[in-house]
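Q: What structure does this chain adopt?
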Amino acid sequence: MNDEKGILFILSGPSGVGKGTVRKKIFEQATDLKYSISMTTRSKRPGEIDGVDYFYKTREEFEKLIEQNKLLEYAQYVNNYYGTPRDYVEDTLEAGHDVFLEIEVQGAMQVKESFPEGVFIFLFPPSLEELKNRITSRGTESNELVLNRLKEARKEIEMMDSYDYVVVNDHVDLAVAKIQSIIQSEHCKRERIEKQYKKILEDELT
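A:
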């Protein structure tokens, strides 16, 4: 019986850095991680599926969840809400499973207040120029929105100090391998396994 709680992993970084692509790649491979799907009021992008990429909500639905304290974090980003359902995260961690969040920087800072023991990973663009190219190449945003996202990205990069790890997303497969290494190393941390081994020793000595 596993008495240990799961570990909460938070992947965050500026808009356009490729968080979604990296997260999808991680979950395409065999993993024990549980992915917490975020909620948003933004429109679906081509190819996105409700309940897979996001839970898509109206503003009214979202604001009701805020009132009921049903969100672990939420942020308003370029006129849309993004948030993380609280119950799923807390119940899954209690059951001993690791939970993986892929969220905006503002949201990650809120999660840090509730879960300071979480493992915070900042996905960094190879350069601001590359970030601009990625945001522009989506083709789903107007020029004004692209500029807004870039301004936000500069501010978000300055918040990197609040994270435990930084991974540069120059190649998706390399970024994924680094994140998997972080997950493994967190499980091998002495303070995480110390309690289990002390208990084993106590059981053997009694």
